[in-house]
Amino acid sequence: MIPFEAHDFDRWLTCTVKEAREMLKVPPVELFNADPVDAEVPEV
C-alpha cells in the first residue's frame, strides 16, 4: 500500500502513467503508527 496525501488525489486520478510512477514512493516510517500488539489466544 502506498498512501497519498489528500491534495494528491486529483493529480493521481488525472495524471499520465509516467507521472503516476513518479508518485509511487514508499512513505517515511514516521507516517505509520504501528506498535506491537498482544496476540489473541483463541478459545478452545
Describe the structure.
- The chain has 2 helices and no strands.
- It is 30% helix and 0% strand.
- The chain starts with 8 loop residues before the first helix and ends in a 21-residue tail after the last helix.
- It has a domain at 1-25.
- The chain is mainly α.
Which features does this protein show?
single chain, 44 residues, mainly alpha, elongated
Summary, kept brief:
The protein is mainly α and 44 residues long. The protein is built from 2 helices and no strands.
Uncertain parts: none
Residues in helices, as a percent range: 25-40%
Please give the largest β-sheet: none
Which shape, going by the Cα principal axes? elongated
The N- to C-terminal Cα distance equals: 35 Å
Strand content: under 5%
Order of helices and strands: HH
Instruction: Please provide the count of β strands.
Output: 0
Evaluate the radius of gyration. 17 Å
Q: Helix segment count?
A: 2
- Coarse structural class: mainly alpha
Q: How confident is the prediction overall: mean pLDDT?
A: 85
Assembly status = single chain
